[in-house]
Amino acid sequence: MPPLVDAAWLARRLGTPGLVVLDASVGRARGAARRVPGAVRFDIDGEFSDPGSPLPHMSVGPGAFQSGARSLGVDDRSTVVVYDAVGVYSSARAWWMFRAAGFDRVAVLDGGLPAYSDAGMPVEDEPAAERADRRGDVTVRPRPGLFVGRAEVAEALADPRTAVVDARTRERFAGTAPEPRPGLRGGHMPGSVNLPFGGLQDGGRMRDAGRLRAAFQEVAGDRERLVVSCGSGVTACVLALGATLAGRTRIAVYDGSWSEWGLTGPVDGADEG
User: Fold this and answer.
1) pLDDT digits (tens, 9 = 90+) for 18-28
2) CA separation for the pair 85, 27 (Å, rounded)
3) Rounded CA gap, 115 and 111, in Å?
4) Are strands 79-83 and 205-206 parallel, antiparallel or unpaired?
5) Does 230 qualify as catalytic in the annotation?
6) Residues near 138 by Cβ (< 8 Å), separated by ≥ 6?
7) Phi/psi of residue 209, each to 5°?
8) Three-point CA angle 155, 163, 256, nearest 5°
9) Cα–Cα distance measured from residue 80 to residue 139, given in angstroms and rounded to the nearest whole number
10) Which candidate in 80, 230, 252, 267 is catalytic?
11) Distance between CA 202 and CA 174 in Å, rounded?
C-alpha cells in the first residue's frame, strides 16, 4: 500500500469492507465538528501517548497500542487511512506508529480533511467516533529501530553516515524564537541539520517525490540513515513520511525530540534558558 493517498482514492473506497478511517488530529483541531464518513478518533493527545511519561506524545508500548487499535476496529487485514484536520500534520505520527507496530497497510490522506472537503467529497457534520462499532483483532509485531531514544540520537550525531534532521522552524532551530513548552532551552542538537516540515508541503499537501528527494539531499547529502526530530515527536513523522516518499528507507524518529533534549542535552545556537 502506498504511504500517501488522495481524496479521490479514499472517497471511492468508503464503505468497503476492511477500510478503517482514522482522525488523528491533535490540539485545537482535536474533536473537529466534521469528519470523513465513518471516521474514528486516533487520539494522540490521549490513549496513544504514554501516560506514565513526563514528556508529551511519547509512544505507548505494544500492548497498549494493540488494545487501542483493536478498539478502533483495526484487523490484521484492514486497510487504514489516517487524516487530520490541518493537512498533513499529526496524521503522519499515527502512520509512523502503525509502521512501528509492524502494520504496513496504512496510509496518510494527502492534504487531510481540508483537501478532502475542498475536493467536494462527502463529509459528516459530527466529530470522529471515540470507538468503532466492532472490536478488531489486529496483532502488533513491533519493528525495532523506528523510534529511538536520547542515547541512540547521541550516537547518531557522532556517526558520519547518519543525519539528524530537525523539523522545527528555522527560528526555533537557531534559538532566536522561544520554545512553546516551558523549561526548554532554545537552539538545536550540535551537528543536527534543519528541514522545517512545512518545507515538504504545498498548501498542506506533500510535494512530489523529486522535490522531496532534493530537499533531503540538500540537508543530508548522501548520508544513508536519517534520524528525525521536532518538538514532541509529531512533525518529525512528517519528515519520516517525506523521506519515505523520497525513496529513503533507513529512517528513525526521535520520540522524545526537543521536549527531552532541550531539557538537558548539549545545545548549539542561542540558549533561551
Assistant:
1) 999 999 999 99
2) 10
3) 5
4) unpaired
5) yes
6) 66, 69, 70, 74, 75, 76, 78, 103
7) -60, -40
8) 60
9) 14
10) 230
11) 24
